[in-house]
């Protein structure tokens, strides 16, 4: 067995299911730490069957359980979190899981001598950007308990770095999409909603002029960024993981209409909407991680349509 072992919270989820195969290819063993309330048990069982992955079915809110499970691990990836929409509906649970959970994992990693911790942060720490592309040194303005906990998580990593020498990278994920994603995923549910309507021969409905944009990054590319952050020489930085391209909702609709192959035009629901735009400056990801995306939005969306048939 390899002497490289990753403690991986929230690893029953969508993104982790793309990261774990890359870790196994690089000869890591993996200890999944997940309460499995939303985890994909079938997929986790497939990983466990390899003999290189084990499941500890516990909650990050319980510090003793975290401490026991992280012991003996050389690396850590912390994905366990409560989503944006759930954090607004129930701020108490969000603070409990996201803030207390963050501290439990970071403190245990520091005390147990983990060589590198990778934290799933979020582009949502920026709030509404003042300019594009969004750079890691831009002003942060997190707006929901989820976003606030991500920013606080980055600050907490800095504390454990200063006091106990913890080595970390915080990845600010932009709009992640790809095969295996739940259809209600907050930032990318628009993709699944459009595909469902197009399959039924109905046009996608867009609020306003469709100027709102996202930076869609394919989960295959993003997973490579996670592994690169686990192994990079440089550390202790927040790093954007996106494509640098802002794809408007109107453009997304056109891409998906073409991919599904139906003859419809989007319907624009004329009303005032907050035009939010997203695009990552990925200079730091290139320089620090040697990472950049390889899958264009057009390619990724076509593959998603094919996979969902």
TrEMBL record:
Residues in NAD-dependent epimerase/dehydratase domain copies: 8-242
Stored InterPro entries: Epimerase_deHydtase, NAD(P)-bd_dom_sf
SUPFAM superfamilies found in the cross-reference section: NAD(P)-binding Rossmann-fold domains (SSF51735)
Gene3D superfamilies hit by this protein: NAD(P)-binding Rossmann-like Domain (3.40.50.720), UDP-galactose 4-epimerase, domain 1 (3.90.25.10)
UniProt record similarity statement: Belongs to the NAD(P)-dependent epimerase/dehydratase family.
Protein name listed in UniProt: UDP-glucose 4-epimerase
Taxonomic source organism: Amycolatopsis echigonensis
Classification of source organism: Bacteria, Bacillati, Actinomycetota, Actinomycetes, Pseudonocardiales
